[in-house]
Amino acid sequence: MSQEVVQQIIGRAVTDAAFRQQLIDNAKEACKGYDLTPEELEALEALDAESLKAFAGSLDVRITKTAGKGFI
Predict the structure, then answer these.
(1) How many Cβ atoms from other residues are within 10 Å of residue 14's Cβ?
(2) Cβ distance 45 to 34 under 8 Å?
């Protein structure tokens, strides 16, 4: 497992509201299909939900999966 995959997951979480909520609710389930070590999964489970949502909310809507839908 590499830092690159963790970055992909975090990137997806900040640009895809549905995935972000899945990650917050159940990181293990949301990360199925990603090759993560137990330590990496634990770190993702420990992400601060409010900080993640706040960062995602600060992004320009044009770079999010919900572009054109009016919400992040």
Answers:
(1) 19
(2) no
Q: What residue has token string 């999966």?
A: 65
The runs of H, that is alpha helices, within the chain are: 3-15, 17-25, 27-30, 38-45, 49-57
Contacts 24+ apart (CB under 8 A), 67-72: 71/17, 72/17
Residue 23 CB coordination number (10 Å): 23
The 10s digit of each residue's pLDDT in 18-53 is: 999 999 999 999 999 999 999 999 999 999 999 999
| CB-based contact 23:44 (threshold 8 Å) | yes
